[in-house]
């Protein structure tokens, strides 16, 4: 008997750069756009090679616009990966912009990403999971196949409270960040991919960052690494439970990675305020490889476009109206 083929799941890495963490956290010096891409990309690409994976890197336009990052960013496509659009300025309050400003963000980022990598992004992920109905319409206008900006979780407001509490921002800066990481009602949105039904009559595919079905708690790698600080056994139970619930609910995960999941304080000293930065890079890469081995036991892991193509063919995919 033919063994049953594993379902497709996707892997993506939001290429948030050193300066964007410094900027969001209100640290001086971000204005010269300090970059750690020369450190992060070789580590990430080598790890993907060892696991035989081809994934999607969501690139920030501002990084693609600077010649110092060209070589590192070009290595992404050279080594067989796909690129996505992660906005130009990486401002997590994209949902506050009007349509013209959103269009500018998308097009400007895309032009620089295409010029550096030679690839047109087919998908978009908003910084800090920010999105709006105008954003979805603009993505369709610009020929995007999918959006990947939603994070269906109830814990966004908690994450925001923690972030504001640990940062040194002025009252005005805090006000701008009031909608950061979403609302309680985000938890009501589906974990499975679906189509947005837009006022123009067109539909856009949404591939949410997968959270644990039923409980809607995140399990992307940053959370798993955080849990591993208490116990790697706890981390592994949590991951296995997430995978089990994904399988029971027939949810093919879209699994999210960040640069700081793969590098530690031994490689970047500036981000000590960030949770998990006291772990050395080597330890993080070992955790990453374990997690990916667990996921690939149940899923065929590929990039976001492969995931999008397989979802688009599935007749059971739901259609929803955007509530924002
Ligand atoms: Zn980001």
Structure description:
- By secondary structure, this protein is an alpha/beta fold.
- It is built from twelve helices and ten strands.
- It has helices at 18-24, 37-51, 61-64, 70-78, 99-117, 133-141, 156-166, 171-176, 221-228, 232-248, 281-298, 304-312, and strands at residues 8-14, 56-59, 82-85, 123-124, 146-147, 194-197, 203-206, 254-257, 300-302, 319-320.
- The strands form two sheets. Strands 1, 2, 3, 8 and 9 form a five-stranded parallel sheet that branches.
- The longest helix is centred in the middle third of the chain and has 19 residues, at 99-117.
- Zinc ion binds at residues 14, 16, 86, 90, 127.
What would the average pLDDT be, to the nearest integer? Answer: 90
Query: Low-confidence segments, ≥5 residues, pLDDT <50?
Result: none
Shape call: globular
Distinct compounds present? zinc ion
Structure classification: alpha/beta
CA gyration radius, whole angstroms: 19 Å
Distance between the termini: 49 Å
Number of helices: 12
Could you tell me the number of beta strands?
10
Percentage of residues in DSSP E strands: 5-15%
The SSE string, one letter per element, is EHHEHHEHEHEHHEEHHEHEHE
**Helix residue percentage:** 40-55%
Major sheet size, sense and barrel closure: 5 strands, parallel
């Amino acid at each position: 008997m033919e063994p049953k083929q594993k379902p497709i799941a996707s892997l993506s890495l939001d290429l948030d750069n050193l300066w964007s963490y410094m900027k969001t956290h209100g640290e001086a010096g971000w204005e010269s756009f300090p970059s750690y891409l020369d450190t992060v990309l070789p580590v990430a690409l080598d790890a993907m090679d060892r696991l035989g994976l081809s994934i999607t890197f969501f690139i920030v336009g501002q990084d693609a616009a600077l010649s110092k990052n060209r070589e590192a960013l070009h290595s992404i496509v050279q080594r067989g990966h796909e690129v996505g659009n992660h906005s130009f300025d990486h401002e997590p309050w994209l949902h506050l912009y009007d349509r013209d400003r959103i269009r500018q963000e998308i097009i400007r980022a895309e032009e620089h990403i295409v010029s550096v990598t030679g690839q047109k992004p087919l998908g978009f992920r908003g910084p800090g999971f920010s999105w709006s109905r105008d954003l979805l319409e603009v993505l369709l206008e610009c020929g995007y196949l999918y959006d990947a900006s939603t994070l269906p979780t109830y814990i966004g407001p908690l994450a925001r409270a923690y972030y504001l509490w640990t940062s040194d921002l002025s009252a005005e800066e805090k006000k701008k960040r009031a909608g950061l990481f979403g609302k309680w009602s985000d938890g009501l949105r589906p974990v499975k991919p679906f189509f947005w039904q837009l006022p123009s009559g067109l539909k856009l595919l949404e591939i949410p960052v997968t959270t644990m079905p039923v409980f809607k708690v995140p399990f992307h790698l940053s959370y798993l690494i955080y849990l591993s600080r208490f116990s790697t056994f706890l981390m592994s139970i949590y991951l296995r439970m997430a995978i089990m619930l994904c399988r029971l609910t027939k949810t093919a995960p879209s699994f999210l990675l960040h640069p700081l999941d793969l590098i530690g304080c031994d490689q970047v000293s500036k981000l000590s305020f960030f949770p998990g930065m006291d772990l050395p890079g080597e330890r993080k890469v070992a955790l990453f490889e374990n997690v990916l081995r667990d996921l690939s036991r149940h899923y065929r892991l590929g990039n976001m476009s492969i995931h999008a193509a397989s979802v688009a063919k599935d007749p059971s995919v739901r259609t929803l109206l955007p509530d924002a």
